[in-house]
Amino acid sequence: AEDQIIHKAIAGRPQDIRDIEGVIYRQKLALDAGYIREWLQAFSDLLENPDIMARFETPWNVIGGPGA
């Protein structure tokens, strides 16, 4: 699920954002947020696109995942 979130955050289409929200809602206790953040930060830096991080962090904080 973590890799799916990473791929969808990079793509960033509206459906991808909804998919990220759904995965977080269903699996928030099982997700490795540190792993997701590490890879999203790397892609965000490489692609010079800070929105990539926000595509995960915003639903994570709204849905209230552990460590939110």
Note down, in words, how this protein is organized.
There is one protein chain. With 68 residues, the protein is an all-alpha fold. The chain has one domain (2-63). 75% of the residues lie in helices and 0% in strands. It is built from four helices and no strands. The protein has helices spanning 2-11, 14-27, 33-46, 51-63. Helix 1 packs antiparallel against helix 2 (14-27), helix 1 (2-11) runs parallel beside helix 3 and helix 3 (33-46) packs antiparallel against helix 4. The longest helix has 14 residues, at 14-27. It is globular. The chain starts with a helix and ends in a 5-residue tail after the last helix.
Architecture blueprint of SSEs:
Elements (H helix, E strand, L loop, with lengths): L1 H10 L2 H14 L5 H14 L4 H13 L5
Note the run of SSEs as H and E: HHHH
What is the tally of beta strands? 0
- The rough form would be described as globular
Let me know the average pLDDT. 94
Structural class from helices and strands?
mainly alpha
Cα Rg? 11 Å
Largest β-sheet summary:
none
Distance between the termini: 18 Å
Domains counted in the coordinates: how many? Answer: 1
Continuous helix count? 4
Question: What share of residues is helical?
Answer: over 70%
Low-pLDDT segments: none
Portion in strands: under 5%
